[in-house]
Amino acid sequence: LYNYLHENNVYAQVHYAPLHLMPYYQQWGNRKGDLPVVEEYYEHCLSLPMYPTLTDEEQEFVIEKVIEYIKQ
Questions:
Q1: pLDDT of the residue at 1
Q2: Partners of 47 in beta bridges
């Protein structure tokens, strides 16, 4: 979905990486697998465009592209 949206000029992002996987926190022994629910969420979440000046037409375009991807 991420790649499809980008190919269609919808710039979704991946945000909110698990804190325990950041290099700073790994120095205390935190490793991948320590928080499997958080990690699973991170691997499957996207932040869709959302900002105050996003027009109704732009919102509809984003919705249309997500629906197109799902119907593939």
A1: 94
A2: 13
**Contact partners, residue 15, CB within 8 Å, separation at least 6:** 45, 47
Q: How far apart are CA 20 and CA 68, in angstroms?
A: 35
CATH 2.60.120.10 describes domain 2-71: no
Q: Which residues does residue 25 pair with via DSSP β-bridges, in sequence order?
A: none
pLDDT, tens only, 22-39: 999 999 999 999 999 999
Give whole-number Cα distances, 72 to 48, 52, 66, 67, 69, in Å. Answer: 19, 31, 10, 9, 5
